[in-house]
Amino acid sequence: MAxxxxxxxxxxxxxxxxxxxxxxxxxxxxxxxxxxxxxTKEWADKMSPHLNIDSVELLYGGAGRGNTVKVxxxxxxxxxxEALEWxxxxxxxxxxYDDRYDNVFALQVIGDSMxxxxxxxxxxxxxxxxxxNEFPPIGKRVIVQRRNATGQIEATVKELELIDxxxxxxxxxxxxxxxxxxxxxxxxxxxxxxxxxxxxxSYLRE
Length: 206
Fold this sequence. Notes:
By secondary structure, the chain is α+β, with helices and mostly antiparallel strands. The protein contains five helices and eleven strands; from the N terminus they run H-H-H-H-H-E-E-E-E-E-E-E-E-E-E-E. The chain has helices spanning 4-10, 15-22, 26-34, 41-51, 55-60, and strands at 67-76, 81-82, 84-85, 92-96, 105-110, 123-128, 141-147, 153-163, 166-170, 181-182, 193-203. Strands 1, 2, 3, 4, 5, 6, 7, 8, 9, 10 and 11 form an eleven-stranded mixed sheet that branches. Residues 186-190 have low confidence and may be disordered.
């Protein structure tokens, strides 16, 4: 966590003023500043505009801990589309402030079928599924790939939920046209569905 008290003073804010701006009490803010209460993403998102710092940087402790991840392509949120990896010249780097994993890749969201979680343009940082010791990763957002009847590789991002004891891939959208599908990794060619990544972070560029 970055030094909130120092950032607040640099921004010319009293503790009382910042507390009012973010909708909390002096006592609560003081406990966050002292480390007695953990800074959550929700409070980091509220504070960051007033402290002139990115919320992720505020949460994870400053630019010195940033890691560069390359955004290699796009993924359709909640709906299947042809797997898309961009040409090298169109790929770009993002800096993240999360050092939990050494091996990650990033994809940019297109579409509105996960828009209650990820608006279009959100960058999803993903951990390769073969490095995740959990199956199925219920409650996680996953990158899923399948081969359709024509042999084309399609991919999507959905949330994996357990319904009546079975894993389902569910959209999270305000648009009612999107529906969930049962996850079946049948390994028989057409329709074969595999989880290739688990989302471990999401970032939205300004």
